[in-house]
Amino acid sequence: MNKQITDTLMMIRPVSFYMNEQTAVNNYYQKKLDGLSNEEIQQRALQEFDRFVAKLTKKGINVEVFDDTKEPSTPDSIFPNNWVSFHDDGKIWLYPMYAENRRLERRDDLIEALRKKYDIQSVDGFLDWEKEHKFLEGTGSLILDRKDMIAYAAISERTNPDVLKDFSEKTGFEVVSFVANQTVDGKRMPIYHTNVMMCLGDTFAVICLDSIDNEAERQNVLDSLKKTRKEVILITEEQKGRFAGNMLQLGTAAGAKFVVMSKAAYSSLTEKQIKKISSHGELVYSSLDTIEALGGGSARCMMAEVFLPKK
């Protein structure tokens, strides 16, 4: 049976982190930080990254850290979960990316480095869809219930129904799709990634149901979560805006469980929500303010889960 949580991550240490203009067109979470030079931005992002990794390793999580490269310039390389996913059948899947400069994040050398430690059966993917301008950005687009083989996906410019169908056919995951929106300048606009409004653990789901405007779609998601015996923990749209949906459950070989998020996400939660989420794992949080503002992504986006069998 597939595991839902892992004790191993791949994370990419930034070397030139800055705001990616190519992604800002439909990532409404990105914000400019005035008065900071590129060097200061990089320094802050690096400090946030290193502190975050230190907290994870202290809890017994195994983090495979790889340095980003100066060339080519990949400002969003800190979010590797969008281009790759690792599975416990030894398969690696590569994903088509919306922003052209994000496609440069895919690195064969990282896969080869992992191959020394892990039993990799195949490397395949959905990259041909980029030619048709259709995208599916890894576990940003896909919230995977690995135990029950269900993929939850919010349709957007970065999560295309045709690629979803291809993903379902190749991997065997059943897809539960819907449209999740947020209000931008008074208009309801699609959320760029599903993992901003939803997190799935082994026994729970944190979700902003208010962002699913279509009642039938909302009910369909709820029915699927209840059928798979998940405790549903609701967050508000305001909390979603502070990355409270962008969490990830991790565990150690010894059986300890953690729910990982940013400090901003943790600070947005009520006592009741904290109590509910804590029943599924110790809460671990770290300040990611610079990364969140300029990158428009948070803790979950930074962690590519490694389920590959060890050699």
Features:
311 residues; alpha/beta; L-arginine/glycine Amidinotransferase, Chain A; 3-stranded mixed beta sheet; 11 helices; 17 strands
Please describe what this structure looks like:
The protein has 311 residues and is of the alpha/beta class. The chain has a single domain (8-305), classed as L-arginine/glycine Amidinotransferase, Chain A (5-stranded Propeller), CATH 3.75.10. Helix content is 29%, strand content 23%. The protein has helices at residues 21-24, 38-58, 108-115, 138-141, 161-171, 215-227, 237-240, 263-268, 271-278, 289-295, 299-302, and strands spanning 8-13, 62-67, 84-86, 91-94, 122-125, 142-145, 150-154, 174-178, 181-184, 187-190, 198-200, 204-207, 231-234, 248-251, 257-262, 282-286, 304-305. Strands 2-1-17 form a three-stranded mixed β-sheet. A hairpin with a 4-residue loop joins strand 3 (84-86) and strand 4. The two termini are 19 Å apart. The mean pLDDT is 93.
